[in-house]
Amino acid sequence: MQQHLEKEDGDIEGPFTIALAAAKTENDTSSQVVVAGSMELFTDSTDQIVSGSNVSMFTDIMTNLTSGEDDNTSVIPVKDYKMSTITITSISTIIGGLAASIFIPVVLIIIGVVIWAVRRKK
């Protein structure tokens, strides 16, 4: 079976229904159902293709389904965290290494000697 993206004779033109919501009320009782065309609609990789619109659609669906007489429900959107890299120059690495291995210990030794000398004279 060969797959290609070109339109062929008999292909249906869009727009296409990707999700459908239905509601029914009977004897003062209402029910709602939402059917999505694919589980892939709500994956991260598919959502990146449409710039977060699928997450927004899912949030709207959940808000609609959970809204009852007492609107105490809320959906908190996911926050996007981006990890950035820290670039340190070689001179900064050398200075930091010298400070940690030489300068700080020398200063602490000098402070210790001064405290020892002051206490010894008392």
TrEMBL record:
Membrane-spanning segments: 94-118
UniProt keyword annotations, A-Z: Membrane, Transmembrane, Transmembrane helix
Keyword Membrane annotated: yes
Record-given protein name: Uncharacterized protein
Originating organism: Roseburia intestinalis L1-82
